[in-house]
Amino acid sequence: MDMLNTTQHFLIIAWWLAFGISVLLYIALDGADLGAGIFSLFVRDHDERGAIMSAMAGTWDANETWLIVAGGIMFGTFPFVYGSAFSYLMVPMSLVLWGIMSRAVALEFRHLASPFWQKFSDGIFGVASLAVTFFGGMCVGALLQGFQMDSPAQGVPNYVGGAFNFISAFSIWTGVASCIAMTLAGVLFVRARFEKNEPIRQDAARWTAVIFWLAIAAVVITWVWSAVIFDWARAKWFGPHFWVWGLFGLIALVCIDQVRRDTLKDKDFAAVLWFNAAAFILGFGMLLTMFPWIVPGTWTIWAGASPQVSLITFTMTMGGFVPVMLMYNWYQIWVFRGRISKLVGHGGH
């Protein structure tokens, strides 16, 4: 029995880390696509909008797979959290799902449409990218604030709030901050994917100078706001081990400064890598800050986890897929790493 308990505790932590890393991978990989979609709303040239969509044609669907992986891990290893959290976030998650489906249709069928419907697809692609980013950010902010649960004498606790309880000043801000951060990821992606003499890359370079500082301001505001309203965050960040969290911040600052330096030197691919490194460090720092909560104030990873047998069975059947996906995703990125020109927008996907 002790061996089973030890195994269960180990698997709970392992799958909690796998869930967090899957979310961070989705943000890093599909975040660039979403940001490029938001950037496309400000691009006037029809062919340039098509080229932006073509630039992500080889990788966008694999990038979104990490969101499915995160949902599968949540369903298989933390089913009680899955059920209650999706009840709480039914409205914003439905809008995120609408956005993901709309982006997919626009990406796959734009080149088959008439000129009028191509323009319509361009608009849908940009608006849907904005919607996914904003409402996804709202979901993160709402989860950090926790939600109401009943306390039955027997059975599993259920969400008891309303459909719009996820709306708060903080969750709205995290939605806005997500749009700012993902737009920076998007313009860095566009810079890295297009030839240096392309006008669209030059436009993205001009945007970088402004969005970079807006993103830094968004991170600082979010950190200060979190420290003020979340006791669990403040207790760790300013507790006895404050230097650990300061180290996370220092490393992130080094990465962010390297993004600035590389953009000034037109080292576009390096800037993308440093940006993703900074995002990973900040995200992983927040994940560790939340521990052992998976939804602060509502669910710990221990209370929300599956029973022993279910957890072990899930691990035996699904554990091998994650490293395979990592290798496949990296191979795709490597294959499509080269720069392209605007002319690619005239072809099919």
UniProtKB/TrEMBL annotation:
<feature type="transmembrane region" description="Helical">
    <location>
        <begin position="311"/>
        <end position="331"/>
    </location>
</feature>
<dbReference type="GO" id="GO:0019646">
    <property type="term" value="P:aerobic electron transport chain"/>
</dbReference>
<keyword id="KW-0472">Membrane</keyword>
<dbReference type="GO" id="GO:0009055">
    <property type="term" value="F:electron transfer activity"/>
</dbReference>
<feature type="transmembrane region" description="Helical">
    <location>
        <begin position="167"/>
        <end position="190"/>
    </location>
</feature>
<keyword id="KW-1003">Cell membrane</keyword>
<comment type="similarity">
    <text>Belongs to the cytochrome ubiquinol oxidase subunit 2 family.</text>
</comment>
<dbReference type="GO" id="GO:0016682">
    <property type="term" value="F:oxidoreductase activity, acting on diphenols and related substances as donors, oxygen as acceptor"/>
</dbReference>
<feature type="transmembrane region" description="Helical">
    <location>
        <begin position="242"/>
        <end position="259"/>
    </location>
</feature>
<dbReference type="GO" id="GO:0005886">
    <property type="term" value="C:plasma membrane"/>
</dbReference>
<protein>
    <submittedName>
        <fullName>Cytochrome D ubiquinol oxidase subunit II</fullName>
    </submittedName>
</protein>
<feature type="transmembrane region" description="Helical">
    <location>
        <begin position="88"/>
        <end position="106"/>
    </location>
</feature>
<feature type="transmembrane region" description="Helical">
    <location>
        <begin position="127"/>
        <end position="147"/>
    </location>
</feature>
<keyword id="KW-0812">Transmembrane</keyword>
<feature type="transmembrane region" description="Helical">
    <location>
        <begin position="210"/>
        <end position="230"/>
    </location>
</feature>
<dbReference type="GO" id="GO:0070069">
    <property type="term" value="C:cytochrome complex"/>
</dbReference>
<feature type="transmembrane region" description="Helical">
    <location>
        <begin position="271"/>
        <end position="291"/>
    </location>
</feature>
<feature type="transmembrane region" description="Helical">
    <location>
        <begin position="12"/>
        <end position="43"/>
    </location>
</feature>
<dbReference type="Pfam" id="PF02322">
    <property type="entry name" value="Cyt_bd_oxida_II"/>
</dbReference>
<keyword id="KW-1133">Transmembrane helix</keyword>
<dbReference type="InterPro" id="IPR003317">
    <property type="entry name" value="Cyt-d_oxidase_su2"/>
</dbReference>
